[in-house]
Design a protein that fits this description.
Collagenase (Catalytic Domain), 5-stranded mixed β-sheet, 7 helices, single chain, alpha/beta
């Protein structure tokens, strides 16, 4: 997995991402409850991709395991190779599509009580994720769950810049995934 950029929600949010690519934009799928709001948009055909309800479950599990309290919102966009490459180039200076990019909102603490805190945006590159799952012998759905959890943990400030933080982040990922009935992705 690659290091995820932290970004200002106004400048780098899904509004900026949704204009990319030549695919017809489909209406975002939204799944809400009292504590977690997940807005999912698809920049490519939805066939074979997880539903918004799956992403909501994975996001909620990651937030709970990380100890996040209070209402929160996350936007997830599934992108094709072209959009994934452009995002990685624009925000990380790397000219290839990567599996997941996380854009933390960077909002200050102290929002009014009861307001869903917008944690940020996650871009998942469907072709890269499919190729990785196939090459690693993983179920595609499990790989999406893993990368969704990984992206959420980045939004919450977790990183893997050094061995200690990488080990801590991986352990938290494994805990979340085990709770979802998914095997350790690092074995």
């Amino acid at each position: 997995m690659t290091k995820q950029p932290a970004a200002n929600n106004d400048r780098h949010g899904l509004g900026a991402m949704s204009g990319r690519g030549n695919h017809a934009q489909q209406a975002p799928a939204t799944d809400r409850d009292d504590t977690v709001q997940v807005d999912v948009s698809y920049g490519l055909a939805r066939r074979g991709l997880p539903a918004a309800t799956s992403f909501r479950r994975w996001v909620a599990a990651a937030l709970a395991a990380a100890g996040h309290q209070g209402p929160a919102s996350v936007a997830i966009r599934l992108v094709d190779q072209t959009e994934g490459r452009a995002l990685n180039h624009d925000f990380r200076g790397r000219d290839y599509a990567t599996n997941v990019l996380s854009f933390a909102s960077g909002l200050p603490a102290g929002l009014p009580a009861g307001i869903a805190v917008p944690l940020g945006d996650i871009a998942l590159c469907a072709p890269v994720i499919a190729a990785e799952a196939s090459a690693q012998g993983k179920r595609l759905r499990d790989h999406y769950a893993h990368l969704s959890v990984h992206g959420v943990l980045h939004l919450l400030g977790h990183d893997h810049d050094d061995d200690a933080s990488a080990s801590a982040m991986e352990a938290l990922e494994v805990t979340v995934l085990t709770g979802l009935g998914i095997a350790d992705p690092y074995r």
